[in-house]
Amino acid sequence: MAAELSAHHRRLAQHKRESIISAATELFLDRGYDGTSLARIAEAAAVSKSTLFKQFPTKAALFEAIVTESWQRDAGDAVARPQTGDLRAGLRSIGHRYADLIGRPGMTALFRIVIAELPRFPELGRMQFQLGKLPYFASVQHYLESEHEAGNADVPDAESAANQFLGMIANYVLWPRMLLTDWNPASPDTRYAVEQAVQTMLARYASDPSA
Length: 211
Prior knowledge:
Blueprint: H1 2-31, H2 38-45, H3 49-55, H4 59-72, H5 75-78, H6 87-102, H7 105-117, H8 122-149, H9 158-173, H10 175-179, H11 187-205
């Protein structure tokens, strides 16, 4: 019985956490970071102030959680590096996972919040980069380094190569959404964009581009 109650309390706490993060993201986007109070977030999330303050004592802590969870959601699937040995398959796997990640409405909202508030709150940009983008970028860089070391790719500058690959995908999937509210490419179009990015990487970096 105690174990069941404990599991129930954990589920309840997780549900409240998700409600808080969802409400905060919407309010930050609608009213701005500075114009949103923790009290207003608690009201929108239908939780008590004490519940919110227990999990997130400051707005900065709450925004940090938003960034971390946005980039690490389904982390086992989105961030895990493919096995070394098949560069084409590995790039495809990374590319489709990245397209799915940055194509979510929540990710677009996060970028819009950061960009809107950057002049007054530069620390939000640092959080977005250091807690979100950088760890994800590093996982791709390390994958390319492992393929280089295994002789499957000639990638003397894996940092630059990772930036090129992710940039090609983001340029189609994410950045138009920042300016065009109706930009929502169909799945086949996104898959095609990823495949073109993979082909470009193979032509440039694969030890055997025809493999």
